[in-house]
Amino acid sequence: MRRLVVGFSVLAVVLAAVGFSPASAADAVWGALRGGGKIVILRHASTEPGLGDPPGFRLDDCATQRNLSEAGRAEAPRIGAAFVRRAVPVARVLSSRWCRCVETARLAFGRVEPWSPLDSFFDDRSREPQQTHAVRALIASPFTGGNLILVTHQVNITALTGIVPATGEMVVLSPEPGGNLRIVGRLGPADFSDT
Predict the structure, then answer these.
(1) Residue 56, phi-psi category: left (phi > 0), alpha (psi -120 to 50), beta (remainder)
(2) Rounded Cα–Cα distance for residues 195 and 72 (Å)
(3) Could you list the pLDDT tens digit for every one of the 195 residues in the chain?
(4) What span, in angstroms and rounded, lies between the C-alpha atoms of 177 and 26?
(5) Residue 154: which residues within 8 A CB-CB, separation 6 or more?
(6) What residue spans define the domains of the chain?
(7) Phi/psi of residue 60, each to 5°?
(8) How far apart are CA 99 and CA 65, in angstroms?
(9) Which CATH code of 3.40.50.1240, 3.30.110.30, 3.40.50.980, 3.40.50.1110 fits the domain covering 22-192?
(10) What is the full DSSP assignment across 123-179?
């Protein structure tokens, strides 16, 4: 155990010596976003407690779904405000049709286009390959201009990137030649503050 602690201490000293800090990592991601042409995959903001949706939920009736909590309704505008404060251009905002995603997008960015390939496949994993393929087809080509925002669910983000994001966390990708995607970084609720 002592060697593990010493190892972490040495690693912290090395990272400090080369100037790495979590703040500088977040600054680098914000800087990349300011340049545009990136894909931001955002997990919806915080919800009421639960896993998945209640039995018999319907997409056309938000009252039947697990929705944003009051905390989530406060988190989402902070995301959009961080984009404005940092002069990050937004080209398009696409969202899962689930109410928690649509509301996150609307509260954060003021606009949203529901898009079914971003819908949750938590309850039906057989839909994952087709939906992930559709998302990859959309984001695989490099583009210029503002950033593309995709608001979706943890299972969708994990299938696409291998990352398990927290609620309200975003994974930033850069399309590369040949249809590859490079992970630029991640931004979470602490990175959206105005400090």
Answers:
(1) left
(2) 20
(3) 433 333 333 334 333 444 444 568 999 999 999 999 999 999 999 999 988 888 899 999 999 999 999 999 999 999 999 999 999 999 999 999 999 999 999 999 999 999 999 999 998 999 999 999 999 999 988 788 899 999 999 999 999 999 999 999 999 999 988 888 999 999 999 999 875
(4) 25
(5) 43, 164, 165
(6) 22-192
(7) -90, 5
(8) 7
(9) 3.40.50.1240
(10) T-GGGHHHHHHHHHHHHSS---SSEEEEEE-HHHHHHHHS--PPTT-EEEEEE-GGG
Nearest to 43 by CA among 25, 68, 74, 65: 68
For 50: left if phi > 0, alpha if psi spans -120 to 50, otherwise beta; the answer is: left
